[in-house]
Design brief:
The protein has about 140 residues and is an alpha+beta fold. It has one domain: 2-Layer Sandwich (STM4215-like), CATH 3.30.2000.30. Helix content is about 25%, strand content about 45%. A 5-stranded mixed sheet has the order 1-2-3-7-6. The chain is elongated. The two termini are about 15 Å apart.
Length: about 140
């Protein structure tokens, strides 16, 4: 059985040393960020999914949009993490996630924005959210 796209993305990103040098293995899916997680980290969340079936040629096609949140305790941390995500995903097509993975046809960036959160303890958290469409 092939991997789910979310699993394939995580496996792929964990193999990208430019990103893991910054976040280690702190890449989380669907809001499953632990309460006391160390910064920086990445959170991935499905924001839109679409499946299409074509009964003539390619039997299945899906396009899912994921929001990648790069979190840091400085703005520079969040920017550096997001740059590594973009670099890892830029121009990627083909197998993602290794054996049994997902064949990705294209990845398209679909917007970004920054956010700042001031915690009650006075610590400021910086976030950069970027949306990417995965066609597979």
């Amino acid at each position: 059985m092939p991997l789910e796209i979310e699993t394939a993305i995580i496996i792929y990103l964990l193999s990208y040393s430019g990103l893991t040098d910054l976040v280690s293995s702190r890449i989380f899916v669907n809001g499953a960020v632990p309460e006391d997680v160390a910064f920086p980290y990445v959170s991935i969340f499905l924001v839109h999914g679409q499946d299409e079936e074509c009964f003539i040629e390619s039997p299945d096609f899906a396009e899912d949009t994921f929001q990648f949140t790069s979190a840091g305790l400085t703005k520079l941390d969040s920017i550096n993490v997001s740059r590594q995500i973009r670099t890892a995903l830029k121009d990627h097509s083909g197998l993602m996630g290794g054996t049994g993975g997902v064949t990705v046809q294209a990845i398209l960036q679909d917007g970004r924005h920054d956010a700042i959160y001031e915690r009650a303890d006075g610590i400021t958290e910086f976030y950069r959210d970027e949306d990417f469409k995965f066609q597979y």
